[in-house]
């Protein structure tokens, strides 16, 4: 990374459909809490045109002894992570209406803060075991996707923002973590930690872990207990482990679906030929032919 050039990166996450286990929104909340000294709220989107209040209700709260109504809103905070890197975070409920207008408002704020890159976070329930690293899917705006592997289906506001931003020339990245579906809808600190690690690796910085490792260990212990008391669930998790281990091995070998790279094919051919050669060398006569089977000798 060229430290002489300052970067500003927008990281956005939204509560709701895109936020299984609250891992995506939890990642931004973790950053804001861990970097509280360096962060400040700088902007917001008033949500009255964007929200169905029967779905995302206003909240009553008491502040300094006085009752107030807190209306749904999306807030932007700036975090000066280093002299060469600023994070602009976008956090709030997923809007119900006028997604294109909402995306344009988000991008106007990104433009005002001279954002260089936009990263949207998401989390989804999936068939993955809690005993293995949680998979993270990352797709950038310049990726050429295989039609057979690319996702086709419903999308949320993170995808709309990514797509709109890429059309306007922004560098974008979509980052989704898979959460074990059998653990329920409670907070998943393991998913938060996985996204924080992936973000840090992408940005080239060490993001603070805080109490995430401790909370992740507690979460895993709770999941272990859940599985241990249910034989069917235990069998299901073991099958998921086998499937993921197999996929990891294939990824390490470069195997993709039914396609096997030529290097792997050649290796398999060499090993097969060596095995057959070893068989040809066992139990053969000096002329390389099988000896006569045991039987009655001549004259018997």
Topology of this protein?
Elements: E1 7-15, H1 23-34, E2 39-46, E3 59-63, E4 66-70, E5 73-82, E6 85-93, H2 99-112, E7 117-126, E8 136-140, H3 157-167, E9 171-180, H4 189-203, H5 212-228, H6 231-253, H7 262-280
Parallel strand pairs: 1-6, 1-7, 7-9
Antiparallel strand pairs: 2-5, 3-4, 5-6, 8-9
Protein name: PAC2 family protein
Region (Disordered): 276-300
Pfam families: PAC2 (PF09754)
Protein described:
InterPro entries: Proteasome_assmbl_chaperone_2, PSMG2_sf, Rv2714-like. It comes from Parascardovia denticolens DSM 10105 = JCM 12538. It holds the Pfam family PAC2. Residues 276-300 are annotated as: Disordered. This is PAC2 family protein. The chain has 300 residues and is of the alpha/beta class. The chain has one domain (7-246): PAC-like subunit (Rossmann fold), CATH 3.40.50.10900. The chain is built from seven helices and nine strands. The chain has helices at 23-34, 99-112, 157-167, 189-203, 212-228, 231-253, 262-280, and strands spanning 7-15, 39-46, 59-63, 66-70, 73-82, 85-93, 117-126, 136-140, 171-180. The strands form two sheets. Strands 2-5-6-1-7-9-8 form a seven-stranded mixed sheet, with helices on both faces. A two-stranded antiparallel ribbon has the order 3-4. α1 (23-34) crosses α4 (189-203), α2 crosses α3 and α4 (189-203) packs across α5. The radius of gyration is 27 Å and the shape is globular. It starts with 6 loop residues before the first strand and ends in a 20-residue tail after the last helix. Mean pLDDT is 86; it is low at 295-300.
């Amino acid at each position: 990374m060229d430290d002489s050039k300052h970067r500003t990166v927008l990281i956005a996450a939204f509560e709701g459909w895109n936020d299984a286990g609250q891992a995506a929104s939890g990642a931004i909340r973790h950053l804001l809490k861990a970097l509280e000294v360096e962060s400040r709220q700088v902007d917001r989107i008033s949500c009255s045109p964007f929200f169905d209040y029967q779905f995302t209700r206003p909240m009553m709260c008491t502040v300094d002894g006085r009752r107030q109504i807190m209306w749904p809103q999306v807030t932007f905070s700036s975090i000066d992570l280093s002299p060469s890197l600023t994070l602009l975070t976008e956090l709030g409920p997923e809007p119900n209406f006028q997604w294109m207008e909402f995306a344009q408002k988000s991008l106007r704020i990104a433009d005002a803060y001279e954002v260089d890159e936009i990263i949207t976070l998401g989390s989804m329930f999936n068939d993955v075991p809690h005993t293995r690293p949680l998979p993270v899917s990352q797709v950038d705006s310049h990726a050429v996707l295989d039609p057979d592997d690319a996702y086709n289906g419903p999308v949320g506001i993170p995808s709309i923002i990514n797509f709109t931003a890429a059309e306007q020339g922004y560098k974008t990245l979509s980052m989704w973590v898979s959460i074990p579906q059998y653990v329920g809808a409670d907070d998943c600190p393991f998913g938060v930690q996985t996204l924080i690690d992936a973000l840090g690796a992408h940005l080239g910085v060490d993001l603070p872990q805080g109490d995430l490792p401790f909370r992740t260990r507690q979460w895993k212990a709770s999941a272990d207990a859940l599985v241990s008391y249910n034989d069917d669930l235990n069998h299901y998790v073991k099958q998921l482990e086998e499937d993921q281990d197999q996929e990891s091995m294939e990824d390490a070998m470069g195997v993709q679906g039914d396609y096997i790279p030529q290097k792997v094919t050649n290796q398999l051919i060499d090993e097969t030929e060596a095995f057959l050669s070893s068989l040809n060398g066992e139990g053969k006569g000096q002329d390389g032919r099988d000896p006569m089977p045991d039987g009655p000798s001549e004259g018997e």
